[in-house]
Amino acid sequence: MGIDPYEKNWMRVSILLLAVFFVIVTIGGFAMGFQVSGVSDEVDPRTLAQTEPWANPGLREVAPGEYEAYVVAQAWTFNPRVLEVPVGSKVTIYVTSSDLQHGFKVTDTNINMQIVPGQVSKLVYTFDTVGEFPYLCTEYCGTGHATMYGTVKVVAGSGTSGSDANASTSTIASSSGGATTEVTR
Amino acid sequence: MAIIDKPLALPAGEPRRAARPLGVFTRPKEQSGISAWLTTVDHKKIGIMYGSAALFFLLIGGVAALAIRVQLATPNNTFLSGDAYNRMYTMHGTVMVFLVVMPIGAAFANFLMPLQVGARDVAFPRINAFSFWVFFFGGLMLNTSWFLGGGADGGWFNYAPNNGVAFSPSHGIDFWNAGLLIAGIGSLTGSINLITTVLNMRAPGMTLMKMPVFTWMTLVTQFLLLFAIPVITVAQLLLTFDRRFGANFFNVQQGADPLLWQHLFWVFGHPEVYLMILPAFGIVSEIIPTFARKPIFGYPFMVFSGIAIGFMGWGVWAHHMFVSGLGPLSVTAFSVATMFIAVPTGVKILNWMATLWGGKLILNTPMLFSIGLITQFTVGGLSGVSHAIAPSDTQQTDTYYIVAHFHYVLFGGAFFGFVGGVYHWFPKAFGYKLNDTFGKVQFWMMVVGFNLTFGPMHILGLQGMPRRMQTYDDAMGFNFWNLVATIGAFILGVGVMLLLANVAYSYSKWKSAGRPNPGPDPWDARTIEWSIPSPAPSHNFDTDPVVTSLDDFWHRKYQEDENGVVRRVHTGEEIAQPGNGEGVHLPAPSYWPIVLAFGIPIIGYGIIFNLWLCIPGALVVIGALFGWALEPADDLDAPGHDHGHDGPGHDGSGDHAEPELETV
Prior knowledge:
The complex is a heterodimer.
Chain A: H1 5-30, E1 38-42, E2 58-63, E3 66-74, E4 77-79, E5 82-86, E6 89-97, E7 102-106, E8 111-115, E9 119-127, E10 131-136, E11 149-155, E12 171-176, E13 179-184
Parallel strand pairs in A: 3-6, 5-11
Antiparallel strand pairs in A: 1-9, 2-3, 3-4, 5-12, 6-9, 7-8, 7-10, 10-11, 12-13
Chain B: H1 34-39, H2 43-72, H3 82-116, H4 125-144, H5 172-200, H6 213-245, H7 259-292, H8 299-312, H9 328-356, H10 365-385, H11 390-396, H12 400-430, H13 436-463, H14 479-512, H15 552-557, E1 558-560, E2 566-568, H16 572-575, H17 592-608, H18 614-630
Antiparallel strand pairs in B: 1-2
């Protein structure tokens, strides 16, 4: 069947578009190093309460200005519900679930992970702005879904990346349902 | 060429092959009234029933939608409890997807496709009736869950392990499984039926590349259904075994991986969205050339992009799961695939715009709805392409941005196209036009309501409002746009209801004007379904239309004169068939499709409540199968059927060598 020249040109344009898209996404994926939440580990959700570090979730400082946050999502709360970090901290966030699928989205950041029971989701983020950032469960998990949230508190005054000597005196509180565990440098 | 391309007739003088069947195995004879509808195998009546059933379910899904919006109108609202809210939004999604949008697509496919290919009926008329009834009873069964312990509460996607008995002890999800499994049987049998019809029963001369675009999109849609429905069927059977018989396919506490469900669901779920939108694409591809008075731009491209969507739709499911921990390699691969599928979709959008370009536009109601589809689907398509960019997608996952996106494609796209199609083909189905001014009011009301409802959801999503939240706190900053969305939803609800009001209004006007006939070709249209009277007679075509070109009817009306100027040489009325076919042999009605379909939900209730109930259900099914099989191929004494020689105009040349084919 005869094809109109305009139609032919439009076919060429769309094939070109395919090539352009392919190049853009491939470069974005492999050369620009975008980060998606990855499975860093597998755990047994049945014995989570007896498995370290999930038996004592919260913040750990691994190096000056660098933290690891372990968060357990369960129906329908996060443990801990508050993560308090100094501004400029680089935090590696590990989240797992003890029962259902949950979500972990920190508003106004690019953190959004699906939390699947049995696997540990991991993302690295540097909190550069002082303020409170709620984290919400984004994956539907039943009647209490809307009540499932916590807060990242990014506090000023402890310098950036731990270079300030005063930082050593600050405490990082991670509270879980009233019980507060303090991690002191 | 078709296997069955002309009406079948008994050879004159030959003795009947079967003895007169016994009482219950005779064919029903009713020509009108409710029992005629219950036993009909006419594809047009079945199409109308699909549409009516979908409208009925639309009321249920719409009420659920408005309840959701009332609950979310203000922060910390207590209109619905958390439990009730979860059931509302789950049933809203399930009903709208499986019992509204899909059946409306089936309604158009059933009514229109045989007319567009010049067939008398679909390939298997009784199976066609069965497809409808099993869908309808499955849908009804799903909705009886409202009264039997509450609807499903796991979301239309019912992610594991939240769909297990431990987390959802009521019977809602069992109904979700059983009802959709049953409705899925109808989708499967329907898809096989319609594929066979397109491939085997086209009019002489209608090659594949001379089929109307809607018929092409129907074909692609039915292939998608044929391969997608088994996937969800497997998932739902596994889940049924988990929930009813203690299996552990999705039970995390026994070491199952809940991601299995997500993969199964979305391998079905993504082709599903294409099979919801493609019929609407086909509809506007018919409406736009008609009212732009130009042939469609890039017909082969239009067809091949539809086929490309049909194939590529299978390779993009994991973009629903970018945040579930797939890792960068999988995410990149599915990003590329998602980018790619945007191209054939974009091609269609541009082809419609190029069809409009330079056309003599007639901006009546069907055309307005088609343009509404193009613009609103483009908004939804653009937000969809943004999901191909994984860093952007991970921000939007499970937020209201996604809700906005898929309502723009499925409501602003598919549903607008469907309403346009109703206005366009209404005279062909019912013999009178819907009021155009009324239709325009409805269109603008729906546009305003729709964009007020779903436009703000983009903003809410980017603000971080998660989906499926029963309520939100005053301090979260979601108040204003949620209120706007609720106001929009009510405007939209009234807009949709105006369709029914218009039907009633136009009917009374038409009746008081003495029921004038709109003529076979009220729109000066292009395809051969307009070459038969309105409403379409039960035998469709008096004689087999012979097709020589794409838009065959148009080319018979308009031809180039010696100066190369296109001129009308005939009016549609002049060359339309009169609709007085005689001696046309039609498949006779049958009791058994509805009986067979009725038995299956009984088994479904048995699986949910008491396995003993499966026995009467199975007996009904087996009995109906025997009745189906023993029913005579036709009731030779049915009124209105002349079984002598083919009527005038038929290929009555005496070639009666072919055996009579059973109409299954």
